């Protein structure tokens, strides 16, 4: 057996009815859909991380490098250990919590915050190794499991439309928030919205025609069009191109930019080491931070895995993902390694659904994602040049496709109707997968009791629902200042 056949056999191409071309295209699609994190994660974390002797530009590049490294490690574990087509990277939302809540609002040193993420990762590894995370996820009620995919779909759709300026905040004539929270963006006034509409229409056309790689083609075509319109002087730099990208290339040259990346990330590592020594200074705040990171990451990751797995047809008849402990281990290892080198919690990305839509079914898709992240290590400035609205085309397309998951829900059953409906709607409306899952889990035992089927609710499901209630009470009490640390 040759090397090519051995690799195909290792990843189970025949079993999953796939091939190299399909898996490679799926990996490229997933990477392009989530590559924005290379720029966005350091942009957020650099607001909190200040290193003596380095300017913020150098810190930004350090954080871009560690974002890539953490993504490579976690996605490689997903590829070789879990053999699932999912990409991982530092999670959005959790990086904002790290920066703006933990470091800036609570005043926790960024070094100590990294130590908290590290401890969370160690806890995840331990719980995954003994099967505890798999057990908890299997407690999710069936209506929640089958609704997660559609909820994530609407969440993706909403995020994409916002980034394209097609859904914008609603303001009155004085520029103040009023009436409904959002409205339709003006594609006549906004070049981003106008180009996004054209790119989205082109992508939908290719998809409807059954052209393989339609999402990748749509992303690249839209990005190239944005740069072309800028270079031709039709729109000014920074409108259809990322802020500063045009000026950096024009002033320094692409080769110079490629050679100027700050690859020395040891200051971040030593900051993490210093953070470990700070744990005893305020253990109560540290425990609170660890718990919050743990709780939100746990249910975000669980929801993403179930939702994308449902989309790809990986779930069994009970709505469970077989051997889910293996992909869970990937994010646990990624989080632990990521904290050590200087980034926030690593999680499975909902953008993985774009690759699944392109036919990705095995860990080879994840391997391609990891390889592309490796290439990005030497092409950071090029990654920074891809407009974010172009990559979000994938989220809109896949978000709409994922709505087909509602067909698996028994809408005639009031328990399914309400639990599933809450799960689906709360996710996009609160911008949180975990909140959507919480709404479904909390409502399920109450609804079962209401119709006289309380015996169908397991003890573990009651505990899970009560735990969520306690979490939200503690969270809102802290937000309101009722509880202070």
TrEMBL record:
Main location: membrane
One term of GO molecular function: purine nucleobase transmembrane transporter activity
Pfam family, one: Xan_ur_permease
Domain of life: Archaea
TM spans (from-to): 24-44, 59-81, 88-106, 112-132, 144-161, 188-208, 215-234, 254-273, 285-311, 363-382, 389-406, 426-447, 459-477
Coiled coil feature spans: none
GO cellular component: endomembrane system; plasma membrane
Subcellular location: Endomembrane system
KW Transmembrane (keyword) present: yes
Membrane topology label: Multi-pass membrane protein
Family the entry assigns: Belongs to the nucleobase:cation symporter-2 (NCS2) (TC 2.A.40) family. Azg-like subfamily.
Listed name of the protein: NCS2 family permease
Provenance organism: Salinadaptatus halalkaliphilus
Taxonomic path: Archaea, Methanobacteriati, Methanobacteriota, Stenosarchaea group, Halobacteria
